[in-house]
Amino acid sequence: MYKLLKKSGKVRRGEFTTPHGVVQTPVFMNVGTLAAIKGAVSSMDLKEIGCQVELSNTYHLSLRPGDKIVRELGGLHKFMNWDRPILTDSGGFQVFSLAKMRKIKEEGVYFSSHIDGRKIFMGPEESMQIQSNLGSTIAMAFDECVENPATREYVEDSVARTTRWLERCKNEMDRLNSLDNTVNKNQMLFGINQGGTYEDIRIEHAKTISKLNLDGYAIGGLAVGETHEEMYRVIDAVVPHLPQDKPIYLMGVGLPSNILEAVSRGVDFFDCVLPARNGRHGHVFTKHGKINLLNAKYELDASPIDEGCKCPACKNYTRAYIRHLFKAKELLALRLCVLHNLYFYNKLMKDIRDAIDGDYFEEFKSEKLNDWAGRA
Prior knowledge:
The protein has about 375 residues and is an alpha/beta fold. About 45% of the residues lie in helices and about 20% in strands. The protein is globular.
C-alpha cells in the first residue's frame, strides 16, 4: 500500500508498505542481479549503507542457481540473508539486451542462454512462476523493452502484446498467491508502461494498464539510447496518466542528475547498475561530481574519497590507498568503491526525502545540479 505523505507540485514523498517492511520514497534500489552486489558487498553491508530495497534478476537467477533451488532453500530472502524488501525484474529486459539470441512470439520469448547456449522459453506465466519461487516482495510483469529508435508500427504491436502479457501475469500471480505452498503469498505485482518515445502510445498504454489496479507501475524502455531530454519528455507525458495512489518506478535510471530530474516529475522508485559498475572501475561519486581514482593526481592524496562522507571507505581509507589497491589489482579496491557509491546514492535519496519534508527540494535540486555541473 502506498501512502502519500507530502506533495509539492509533481514531487511526491511517500511510504510504501510491503510484506517485508515499509519503504520510504523516493528510493533507490541497490542492484544485486544474482542475489549479490558485484564487488563483494554483503547483505549486512547493505544495511550499514542505508539500502531499503535490493533488486535481483529473474532471468539470471532462473539459470543459476535455479529458482527451484532457491525455493527449496526457503526463498530469496532466506537464501541471501536479507529481511527487507526485494524487487525482482521479470526477465523482460533480457528480451532487449539479448536481442541476437531470442525470438519473440505471442506465447512468450525463446532465448538461447548466454551461459551455455541452451534453449530457454519464458512467457508471462513462466516469469511469474519463477518470481513466485524466488518469493520476492515485488514481482515485475513480463514485458518487451523496445529498442530505440523503433518504427511506430513495431512499437504499437509490441505495446499491445505487452498489455496482453500483463493481464496473463496478473491472472497467474493471483493463482500462485492462492496456493498453500507459495513462498510469499502476499507477493506484489508492478506493471510496466512501454511505448518508446511516442508520447501518445505511452499515454494510451498508461491509461490501459492503470485499470488493472496493480500494486505499482513502472516506466520502462528508457535509458536505452534516447537523450536525457527525450527521457524527461516521456516522463512528463506518462506520470499524470498513472495512478497517483500507487508508487511510480523509473526503470534503469541512472545518474544522480537523472534521479533529481525524475523526482521533480513525480517518480518514486529508481534502480541502476551504474553506481556499482562505476565503482568497480575506480569511478566514484562525490558532492562535487564524479572522479576517477586511477588518475595519477591521487597517488599522494591523503583525503577520503568525499570529505564528510560517512561510508565505510571514507571513514577509514584515503584516495591514495584505494588507488594503490586498484594498481595492485587487490579486490578490496572494488569493494570499497562500490560501498562508497551505493552509500552516496542511498544518502542522496535520504537527502531528497528530507528536502521534500522541509519544503526546500527545488533549492536542493538546483544546488546539487550546479555543484555537479561545475565539477564536470
